[in-house]
Amino acid sequence: MNFSLTDDQRLIRDTVRQFMEAEVRPSIRARDREERFASEELRKLGELGCCGMLVPESWGGAGADTISYVLMLEEVARVDAAMAVALSVTNSLAAFPVWKYGTDAQREKYLCRLAHGEVLGAFCLTEPQAGSDAASISTSAVRSGDCYRLNGTKSWVTNGGEAGLYVVFAKTDPAAGAKGTSAFLVEPSFPGFRVARYEDKMGLRTSRSAEITFSDCDVPEGNRLGEESQGLKIALELLSGGRVGIAAQAVGIAQGGLEASVAYARERRAFDKSIGDFQAIQWMLADMQTEIEAARALVHHAAWMRDTGASRMGAYASRAKLYAGEMVNRVAYKAVQIHGSLGYSRESDVERMYRDARVIPIYEGTSEIQRLIIARDLLSAVSGAA
Ligand SMILES: Cc1cc2nc3c(=O)[nH]c(=O)nc-3n(C[C@H](O)[C@H](O)[C@H](O)COP(=O)(O)OP(=O)(O)OC[C@H]3O[C@@H](n4cnc5c(N)ncnc54)[C@H](O)[C@@H]3O)c2cc1C
């Protein structure tokens, strides 16, 4: 067992860290207040290869391993969690599926542009009446000549209104229930595609979460992703991989919160001492770091499982996402506590991190759904061993 990073992995981590410190950190508080999407910063990260990390070089991607991918997301989230979710969706839920399930024509048309960060990707599964229960979506896709006609509403679409390609799930055979779902590649210029509104969120204020409607939106047959009726299987496979990235986002936010807390504990004085001299503060810092390391180990293990093609990777991704998602909320709570009143002020980074962290146990499958997946895996495994 080797816990050290390769030279390539270290280079990716350090390059992204430098970029985030120099180009993003100085403007993050103002952008959060103004709810300004980081288009320019994301475009530059795309040029560095951060939008198509899981796509082979022959299709314009970085051809990196999943460990490199989670290192990149952790470094981005350490400074700006909203940028990390934009990158996570583009990499795991848009570029990767076009490469994995797409035809060569679809790859030619969409993959290089996604992988180079010229356009962002979006993933449209959730609907106002269907979140955890993804099989109950009602958006329809009815064959009409050489097109599919889409009708329905998708909600909470990350990168909605900013993306150049939307992976959309719709029912081609409603009578077949979960098995009647298919996936489509939809461009925002297709007639009938409309961004209806944006969510007004607690955190991730610079990320876009859109409601998108499809009204007689004709999608060419050549834009169906995978086989007809394979859609839900594709969605669930993608979410398994995507969860490793979301867990890395949690580790990044927590790491950012810890670093800010250590710096503040050294600097802030009370009762003629720095607050870091109080055991109460020391214990919080020690617990924060220990939990972050535990989560990072789960994330790296799940990433390694993904790279080895392990059949039970999904349950490992769920464990990483469950633990990291709940860990980051405990860590962000302590980071605010250590900062005292400053932690409750928009003048501090930990206030934003506290709000940003809250969504992690909710999106890409709630903590409750992760526990279901983990328990199902445990009960179905032959001996209960890994
Ligand atoms: C900021 C943000 C960005 C998002 N981005 C995207 C995106 O890009 N694309 C996309 O498709 N979706 C996106 N989502 C949607 C997200 O994936 C869903 O919100 C999530 O899957 C939960 O669905 P829901 O909100 O409908 O909750 P519900 O499914 O209504 O769940 C409500 C509660 O019931 C619990 N529950 C439900 N079923 C069970 C069960 N079987 N056992 C135990 N408890 C259960 C849940 O855990 C939760 O606590 C995003 C959401 C947010 C907040």
Report the total helices: 11
Structural class: alpha+beta
Oligomer: single chain
User: What is the residue-averaged pLDDT?
Assistant: 96
User: Could you name the ranges where pLDDT drops below 50 across 5 or more consecutive residues?
Assistant: none
Percentage of residues assigned to helices: 40-55%
Query: Separation of termini?
Result: 16 Å
**How would the global form be characterised?**
globular
Q: Major sheet, described briefly?
A: 4 strands, mixed
Count the E strands: 10
Explain what the structure shows.
With 386 residues, the protein is α+β, with helices and mostly antiparallel strands. 51% of the residues lie in helices and 15% in strands. The chain has helices at 7-24, 28-34, 39-47, 66-79, 81-101, 104-115, 231-267, 279-308, 313-339, 349-357, 367-380, and strands spanning 121-124, 140-144, 147-158, 165-171, 181-186, 193-198, 209-220, 224-225, 269-270, 273-274. The strands form three sheets. The chain has a four-stranded mixed sheet. A four-stranded antiparallel sheet has the order 2-3-7-6, with helices on one face. Helix 9 packs antiparallel against helix 10. The longest helix is centred in the middle third of the chain and has 37 residues, at 231-267. The chain binds flavin-adenine dinucleotide. Residues 89, 123-126, 131-132, 156-158, 201, 204, 209, 359, 362-366, 368-369, 372 line the site of flavin-adenine dinucleotide (FAD). The site of flavin-adenine dinucleotide has 22 residues, from strand 1, strand 3 and helix 11.
